[in-house]
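Weekly sync notes, structure subgroup
Attendees: PM, AL, DS (notes)

Item 1: joint prediction request from the bench team. They want all two components modeled as one assembly rather than separately. Inputs as received:
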Amino acid sequence: MSASGVPVRRAGLRSYGRPHAVGIAGIVLDALAVLVALPPLEARSLVVPAAVGFLGLACGVWALGGGETRLGWSVVAGATLAIPLGALATRSDLGDLETVFAWSALMAATLRFATPLVFAAIGGMFSERSGVVNIGLEGMMLTGAFFGIWGADVTGSWLGGLGVAMGAGGLLALLYALFAIQLRVDQIVGGTAINFLAVGVTGFLFVAVYGSAGTPAGISSIPDVSVHWIRHLPVAGGFLDRTIGQMNLMIWLALALVVLAWLVVFRTPVGLRLRSVGEHPRAADAVGISVYRTRYVAVTLSGVLAALGGAYLSIGYVHSFNPLMTGGRGFIALAALIFGKWNPLGALAAACLFGFSSALAQGLHVYSASGATLFQALPYVLTIIAVAGVIGRSIPPAAVGRPYIKQ
Amino acid sequence: MIEPGGNEQPEAPPAKAQLALGLAQLQRAGGLVTPVITTLLAFAIGGVVVLAAGHDPLATYRAIFDGAGLNWFFPWVTGADRANAALNLQQTLIITTPLILTGLAVAFAFRCGMFNIGGQGQYMVGAIMSVWIGSSFAGMTGWLHILLTVVLAMLAGAAWAGIAGFLKATTGAHEVITTIMLNWIAYWGGSYLFGLGGPLQSDVRKFVPISSDVADGAKLPVFWGDPQLQGLHVGLFIAVAALVVFWVILSRTTLGYQVRAVGYNPEAARYGGISVARNYVVAMAISGTFAGLAGALDILGWQFRLSVGAVQVSQVGFIGIAVALLGRNTAVGTFFAALLFGALYTGTSTRSLDPSVFRPDLAGSLAQIIQGLVVLFVGADVLVLYVWNVRRKLRRGRVTPAPRPATGAGP
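Output from the run, pasted for the record:
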């Protein structure tokens, strides 16, 4: 991530070298404080996670003393979370622990949950990098979910479903672009309208086409990709096979999309133009970049990608459609985008974090069904913490949300 | 308000100035033209949708109108029809009540230059607090119980919105992002509290994800209709009083002046010695107070309990966004917009719509589409003005600048 990351700090790093390294070590120790109590290590004594956690805490304090304020506080916060969590795990039933923390299954579920988020977040990144806020991701996903399954039903092929979903999502985004860019509607208002519209249109069509019976069974769905040969790899082969040996095509596509998006945005002239339009449209215009065209393309692309995420939900994962099935995933994607600092790799990491929390929430039912429900709120809490800048402030593109008036 | 004719223009100003002039005139006309055209346009497109579904749009809108009980106002509707219309109108006004308040929640923040998307979360927090307090303290005196519940619900809403205001004031975190996130935290929080095994789940119905009922004493009195048939509760008057409070705060107090100053131009307000940060927090807290009150009135007025399902399908706060936008963030506008959406949602509900005219299962989505279109168009002043001008040009050709016709009497 370093090549794309924020190069601002680099200069000051050398003089604070050791506190920084200690801080990083503190984060590792924090994580370890929980991990020692989980399978496969399964420490059963309270002392072990506590000791590791306090070591982490010490590292945090050291880093604070060395002037690494932000990192230091993160480590301290991490340790105060990790010690009780690790302690809790040592008190838990071993069988339960092994059910919940079957790592390969947990990782596979994480990727499944993260995939729709990745598509929508990357879409949102294109839109916001061009200077147009996209609150309508949720609606575009929902549109993709409905038109994906409807397209697959009508054309008889999941490929047709993906095509129709992309078309519908793109059209909806184009409508939004028309209002946000050309007519200079407030982008939050426009995005809210898109969400309302998507709920209405998909709900209407769903009832009109499928009635109360719902989508029929047996609609063509996106296939899995088997890479079972991976088990022949040394050391981690078996684990990898169980995790990614049998994954949906869309998960692979999502990972490829992240790499592609990163290359496009940070390593091509097109990406440079996109970012310049989002940071300083006046300057971009002055050097001959068409601000409107760039934004139109970016916003439409965001709709296409968000719709792909929605289509994965309906014909890749759930194999049916029901109204409001996206259930806030578009907003979590928005959160992942912010959490990932408008960077594809960061968005992937955030989507995986949120996916992991969803996967874990499933498992936590073993302990407490209601607690698992509450756990679903975690991504939103983390996002608030992120935008508030307690741990590494997220700063959006400079011109985001402001309509551009050509002179 | 509107001076008909009068302003003579010596020469035609350039195109851009003409647009600005037109917009200024729209503003002077109480901003009535844009919302009216917006609504008509949205309903017209909704009519096309109805037509595409193979139904008669006019008959459908008529059925929605009747389903909302608005035909009660016609003196020639008598007998059983009138009784039915009264029942429907009571439902419309029951829904209008929280919509007024969630609309105000959005409008107040707007006046301070903030977009409060979090009305839904603030409403939900208020509703949760009302269920909790309302179903506890069973032996308390009725009016005291109601007062306590309402005040605490308002405080809960204020605190929930205040988080967003505080974060904006101290760290600059954008209120749109934080309020969206707070909505979903309230959503999952509510699902947790009333879910099976949750702390506020009913002790009686152990296997249903629902709360206990509000104590009988804490229910708001019904003043029109049968309390057993979900008659109209007195919350409507409280909502109307809130409209007055909204207007008084904004137009007649120093606080309101400061809020509006920050809304117009935060830099200028800061230069003028107004604490922008403090106003962000206060304006959000007042917004949340309105939304929290909406939650309390719904719970004490007609819902009396909350279930996980109710928490998850509730849209009241989101409709409030459309209400505020259509009502141009004014008290009077919010009232009429809330009435419009209250009527639209009641008129399209399965309970009220005549199924022989249009399928009620489709009509709910139709209402959503119309709502989306309203929000989409209402922000597009430029578009609406363009439509308006084309219409005018079609009608008169290019004659001398004529006085703008005053459409409809301002309320």
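Discussion: Chain B touches chain A through 53 residues (CB under 8 Å).
Action: AL to compare against the crosslinking data before next sync.
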